[in-house]
Design brief:
Helix 3 links the parallel strand 3 and strand 4. Helix content is 33%, strand content 23%. It is built from 11 helices and 16 strands. The radius of gyration is 22 Å and the shape is globular. The structure holds glyoxylic acid and manganese (II) ion (2 copies). The site of one manganese (II) ion (MN) has 4 residues, from loops.
Length: 411
């Protein structure tokens, strides 16, 4: 297909991976100097591909390729540019780079469609810096809760301040929101982050729905004390209590189909070898393919953790930092993605997404569709994340075919 270059796609993912706060590992959080560097690359590639490009009011990169005439409603494409800590180089980035590649191909073919195409590189999807997630896509969908501006990062910097430090005006965050009538649909290409496509020998699959997720921030408070002098039965050890809570999460979620629970971050204070931990903060992430299954697990965990902490004489506080139900992909977009897969001579495979995506937020603005591309051994949120050049190219070709044949009228 003219214009699609797997070499360019992969080398751009490499270039983005170099925008990292760590040497030899990839970590790029929201509103960081590394985000600025990545954004400059992305805005440049958007312009090279024939788009007008800008940073929006929350720091998303937005590129626009006009349709047959200026100002037409747009098919929105995108994914995220932030990463987890010690991340892979394709989670999010592949979707942004592949979408730019598709516009590049349209532009080279001097192809103007009966709608505009916009590519958005969302600035925060992972939610690593602040106790909030999908900030970029929620802002675009117009659903960002203004209270999030007062959430602070681990260093005590609020989102409000971080926006100012980045050169953005927190009072203007609402300007990132798009109008429904100008947004025809949102489509995202993403690595699968799971092993299903590889196991079935398929390069691409069409997503049916994104599993729901709840995130909790838990604070446990006991009493710090001397590790040598306080007998075991007189301790109020916040870390031992938190460890028991973590095992309760594992026990509650294990064995229930399509339910998963993770304690991904834990911090013990004061954090010295000879001090009984007095304060612990940890996170819980619970996901399920059915909202009722997730809600009942979260309820049970509240009860179990209260009981654990009461028995151990420590205090517990639990805050919900994210709660999102299952997000269905729109049948009319799944059909058009199926058709694009089939037109490339590939078997059509539909599958759900266990991972979260910007589509969860974008679904409040317009219908969403997603295309998954096979990744090696299903590994993701890990520096070993890998895809082949052939799959990057095939996925992007399918996506381009979807864009070229996109019919908003089938809504
Ligand atoms: C994002 O990758 C998430 O699923 O948390
Ligand atoms: Mn991710
Ligand atoms: Mn992702």
């Amino acid at each position: 297909m003219p214009g699609i270059s797997a070499v360019r796609i992969l080398s751009r993912c490499e270039a983005l991976a170099a925008c990292s706060e760590q040497r030899g590992a990839l970590t790029r959080v929201y509103l960081s100097p590394e985000q600025r560097a990545a954004s400059e690359l992305v805005l440049g590639w958007m312009r090279e591909a024939g788009m007008s490009a800008r940073l929006d009011a929350v720091g998303n990169c937005v590129g626009r390729h006009e349709g047959e005439r200026p100002g037409l409603p747009a098919l929105l494409l995108g994914s995220h540019l932030d990463t987890v800590r010690d991340a892979g180089r394709y989670d999010g980035m592949l979707g942004v780079v592949a979408a730019i590649e598709c516009v590049h191909a349209l532009n080279e073919a001097v192809r103007r469609l009966p709608f505009a195409v916009e590519v958005i590189g969302f600035a925060d999807e992972e939610g690593v810096r602040f106790d909030a997630t999908l900030i970029g896509s929620r802002a675009v969908a117009g659903t960002l809760d203004p209270a999030v501006l007062d959430v602070a990062d681990g260093a005590g910097v609020t989102l409000r301040q971080a926006l100012k430090d980045f050169g953005l005006d927190p009072a203007r965050v609402r300007e990132a929101a798009r109008r429904r009538e100008e947004s025809l649909a949102y489509a995202e290409l993403h690595i699968e982050q799971g092993p299903v496509l590889e196991a079935e020998g398929l390069p691409a699959g069409v997503v049916t729905a994104i599993n729901g997720a709840t995130r909790l921030a838990v604070d446990v408070e006991g009493t710090a004390g001397h590790a040598g002098t306080v007998p075991m039965n007189l301790r109020r050890d916040a870390l031992a209590a938190a460890a028991e809570c973590a095992l309760a999460v594992e026990r509650r979620c294990a064995g229930v189909p399509d339910l998963v629970g993770t304690v991904g971050r834990i911090e013990a204070l004061p954090g010295a070898v000879n001090v009984i931990p007095g304060k612990v903060r940890f996170t819980i992430d619970v996901r399920a393919a059915a909202d009722a299954v997730r809600a009942s697990a979260v309820d049970d965990l509240h009860g179990q953790m209260q009981a654990i902490c009461a028995r151990r004489g420590v205090a517990i506080g639990v805050r919900k930092t994210h709660d999102h139900g299952v997000t269905a992909c729109a049948p009319w977009l799944m059909e058009q993605l199926d058709a694009a897969v089939a037109a490339e001579g590939l078997p059509v495979r539909r599958l759900p997404s266990g991972a979260g995506h910007d589509g969860m937020a974008m679904a409040e603005l317009c219908d969403i569709g997603m295309l998954f591309v096979r990744c090696e051994k299903g590994v993701s949120h890990n520096p070993a994340e890998a895809i082949t050049a052939a799959d990057a190219e095939t996925g992007t070709r399918v996506f381009l075919r979807f864009i070229e044949n996109f019919e908003a009228a089938r809504r």
